[in-house]
Amino acid sequence: MAVLDKYGIVSFSTPAMGDMFKCTQRELEGRDVASLIPGLPLKTLTPGYNLAFADFWGNKGELLKFKGHSPNGERIPLAVSLNKLSIDNTPLILLRLLPGSEHAIPNGEFERLIESAKNKTDVVMITDTTGIIQAVNDAFAQATGYSREEAVGQPASLMKSGLHTPEFYSKMWHTLLAGNEFQAVFVNRRKNGEIFHEDKNIRPFIDKSGQITHFVSTSHCLSESLRTTLLQLHHEAYHDALTGLPNRHLFEDRLKQAFSRALRRGENFSLVYLDLDSFKEINDTYGHTVGDEVLRTTATQLKACVRNEDTVARLGGDEFALILLDIHRREDVEIVLKKILRSLEQGIHLGNKRISILASLGANIFPDDGTDSESLMMRADFAMYKAKSDGGHGFHFFDKDEFAGSAAKKRLAELLTAGKRLNIASCTSEQSTRH
Ligand SMILES: Nc1nc2c(ncn2[C@@H]2O[C@H](COP(=O)(O)OP(=O)(O)OP(=O)(O)O)[C@@H](O)[C@H]2O)c(=O)[nH]1
């Protein structure tokens, strides 16, 4: 692994990269990456392009296959991934390298692989196809605190931290069992309970008959500063910068989790949409800074009105969504909605003046009002639109009969077909202007 500056110059490299290029880290640092990997389209004269390219490839999560040129002229087949990083507001590029261009380890090299792993600085762990550890190297013991004797025969989940979602592991198994390699930063737990971060690559080992017999994991632990930066990047991708709330991506993920939890435990949950009333007027009258303060206060108040395991997200503009877990009756939701309206009313203070925050809320309950996320989202939005068209500053529960007779239903269907965001508020002629 290496960190490049925006001009593509190697600012930092790991010993593993030195091993790969058959030279010391010092010989790599300060070099133009184009001289080491000529195929990479990073050029010293195009820093803006370099960062945009790293960001683009990072988001795609793809590995690029190249031939590296070691300083002594040797050709090295490589798989490369790029990500944009920011450390202390300095944009940088994280370059991750894997040996070879093959997905699977070539036939008959298994024993040699175990032998070669012995002296590596990288952590190597070999499991069978069910994830039981078969072999580890010395670096494994240093990184995890488990000796070879303690680890071999145990499931690799020995190091599980509980901080990844079940989807993370299911994606890993799908990828591996399809014969492809899996690369990710794993958050694992050492024997002494400490959390550590591993930049890990897992490759299937395929025997002479073409069967996958083992998985080979190679990783190195991330330094504290890099780990913090990666956590920040992850947080930024899933949170709204203004309020710090989960953004639409994370909200959709939480909604999926709410479905699985409700199905697993036989529970109900409620989805609530909230749109501020006359927010545009606040912006127009007092300016965007005050508007931003109103949005931040809304976020704080919403979080204060719900339980820790519930979700409050900002979907965009003045639209928020809440997922209230483990709901028994509609009355439970009503209590929360009333509390929200009351606490938002307190608003913000501007000198001697108080600006109340008014909102329209639409709610529904799984499974009564919908059994998939799309219809629940659409129906919460519809209920919110009803609350708004009833004068705003209030809440409304989704009602099937109302929905069936509504002209908006047709509009909803059109929007749904067009795959657009369902902003029903824009269809209404009646808008609340109360403050
Ligand atoms: N201050 C601020 N304003 C924003 C932000 N994002 C969106 N807006 C503004 O939010 C307003 C949303 O418009 P509308 O949905 O029509 O707001 P509204 O006046 O509450 O209309 P109704 O919902 O019908 O009551 C627009 O004026 C946007 O410019 C933001 O991050 N900060």
UniProtKB/TrEMBL annotation:
<dbReference type="Pfam" id="PF00990">
    <property type="entry name" value="GGDEF"/>
</dbReference>
<dbReference type="GO" id="GO:0006355">
    <property type="term" value="P:regulation of DNA-templated transcription"/>
</dbReference>
<dbReference type="InterPro" id="IPR013767">
    <property type="entry name" value="PAS_fold"/>
</dbReference>
<dbReference type="GO" id="GO:0003824">
    <property type="term" value="F:catalytic activity"/>
</dbReference>
<dbReference type="InterPro" id="IPR043128">
    <property type="entry name" value="Rev_trsase/Diguanyl_cyclase"/>
</dbReference>
<protein>
    <recommendedName>
        <fullName>Diguanylate cyclase</fullName>
    </recommendedName>
</protein>
<dbReference type="InterPro" id="IPR000014">
    <property type="entry name" value="PAS"/>
</dbReference>
<dbReference type="InterPro" id="IPR029787">
    <property type="entry name" value="Nucleotide_cyclase"/>
</dbReference>
<dbReference type="Pfam" id="PF00989">
    <property type="entry name" value="PAS"/>
</dbReference>
<feature type="domain" description="GGDEF">
    <location>
        <begin position="267"/>
        <end position="400"/>
    </location>
</feature>
<feature type="domain" description="PAS">
    <location>
        <begin position="106"/>
        <end position="154"/>
    </location>
</feature>
<dbReference type="InterPro" id="IPR035965">
    <property type="entry name" value="PAS-like_dom_sf"/>
</dbReference>
<dbReference type="InterPro" id="IPR052163">
    <property type="entry name" value="DGC-Regulatory_Protein"/>
</dbReference>
<dbReference type="InterPro" id="IPR000160">
    <property type="entry name" value="GGDEF_dom"/>
</dbReference>
